[in-house]
Design goal:
Elements (H helix, E strand, L loop, with lengths): L6 E5 L9 E3 L8 H10 L2 E3 L9 E2 L8 E3 L2 E6 H7 L3 E4 L10 E4 L3 H4 L10
Antiparallel strand pairs: 1-6, 2-5, 3-6, 4-5, 7-8
Length: 121
């Protein structure tokens, strides 16, 4: 069986729900329908953080302050199934106005069959 593999990471410059926006201006992005359809049509998975982490900050204060989840990690569904326990991590450092994303996963088959060795000195 041929394995499909696709990883897309980056600034999609849009949000897909109001829970992805904090601050003074909460608008649903007009591209949300197109993004949702593309994900479904191509068997992709938008790997969401376990707790909402917002990745972009406009750097303002008061009523004009806005924070959004605009950076995404999208994988092909077969890759998600193969990697097991896939989740998104974030580096808690705003280098610019975005937070870097990390892909984290665990593969059980890498653990099985490794011998334990103890060398007493």
């Amino acid at each position: 069986m041929e394995m499909a593999s696709l990883i897309i990471v980056g600034d999609f410059n849009c949000t897909v729900g109001l829970d992805e926006v904090w601050g003074g201006s909460k608008n649903i992005d007009p591209l949300v329908g197109l993004i949702h359809d593309a994900i479904i049509d191509h068997n992709l998975v938008d790997v969401c953080p376990q707790t909402m982490v917002l990745t972009w900050d406009n750097g303002r204060v008061g009523m004009t302050y806005v924070v959004k989840r605009m950076d995404r990690l999208i994988l092909h569904e077969q890759l998600v199934e193969r990697l097991e326990d896939v989740h998104v991590g974030f580096i808690n450092n705003y280098l610019f106005d975005h937070r870097p994303i990390t892909l984290q996963w665990r593969r059980d088959d890498f653990i099985h069959g490794l011998p334990f060795k103890f060398n007493q000195t």
